[in-house]
Amino acid sequence: MSEKASDDTQQGTYVEDEFTRDTAYIEDRITDGGEQWPVEAGRYRLVVARACPWANRAIIVRRLLGLEDAISMGICGPTHDANSWTFDLDPGEVDPVLGIPRLKDAYEKRFPGYPKGITVPAIVDVPSGGVVTNNFPQITLDLSTQWTRFHRDGAPDLYPEELRAEIDEVNERVYTEVNNGVYRCGFAGTQAAYDAAYERLFTALDWLEERLADQRYLVGDTITEADVRLFTTLARFDAVYHGHFKCNRSKLSEMPVLWAYARDLFTTPGFGDTTDFAQIKSHYYEVHRDINPTGVVPLGPDLTNWAEPHGREALGGRPFGDGTPPGPPPEGERVDPANNPLVGADGLVRV
After folding, report:
1. Where in the chain are the domains?
2. What's the mean pLDDT in 314-335?
3. Has this prediction a pTM greater than 0.85?
4. Domain 161-333: CATH class, spelled out
5. Residues forming the active site
6. What is residue 343's DSSP assignment?
7. 55, 61, 63, 69: CA torsion to nearest 10
8. Strand partners for 76
9. DSSP at 190
10. pLDDT of 202-227, one tens digit each?
11. Among the entry's GO cellular component annotations, what is one (predicted)?
């Protein structure tokens, strides 16, 4: 997620006549055997914000694959000005590894005068302090396919070769119509643009309801990259998209198949235990001042319904295939239980 460049004291502007996401990212890749950016444990730092759905994908994949010891993680706070995400959660408001207060510093280190929005997730080369890539769709695929030497024992195959064509096809529709579709609704600047965006979004959600009615996961019988990409939007739906973005034909909790599917993933290690509802609400309601001028953050909705039984086990499937669930997240990376009432002191979701 990015913000449009402006001065350091103002929030960005988001509403457009018809919202179009800028997808020109830094396309460098970290690859096994690569010359400029080779896979190397301890060299890179993944910078994220728990509030951001695009960054949340990378957090989930890194955790599912057990890459915590190979790639460190810096966590920005949930709000930012129009200029940069900041490390205001860290002591002294400085990232302890990169030694910078603002993610923009890593972008500027490599690209002086960087002209575009400062986005998360971003991977930073620790020795040089410069950003390597912010290409969020490719980051998670590369974590699955290029970092296999550092995957934990029992790590799932999130991008199995025999299913890649179908995963890519599903991902494309989910991205354009759902992941980006909620933003198209929320940032629409005209009634006509909003009406069209609303219809597109709920047409896609109805398609997903039908697709998932008799299969536990989006592609195949295990969790894949496709489920990760859909989950981060569903996790934010009732908390922010339904009201803040006017995606209000129905709540997620009123779409029975998707609601059960989302709860199934939420209670799977790696998903709900990386979800910080307080930071999610703080970001959207405080940063998008052209939509919510007061910056007031709503107290609801009640989140305890995420723990209700989902019954999806009856559809079969094996969440991790021949692998195993990840263990508890490292202590320094656990979601604050105050921000997600279903997370215990060990960082895991209580089922």
Report:
1. 161-333
2. 96
3. yes
4. mainly alpha
5. 52, 183
6. B
7. -90
8. 49
9. S
10. 999 999 999 999 999 999 999 999 99
11. cytoplasm
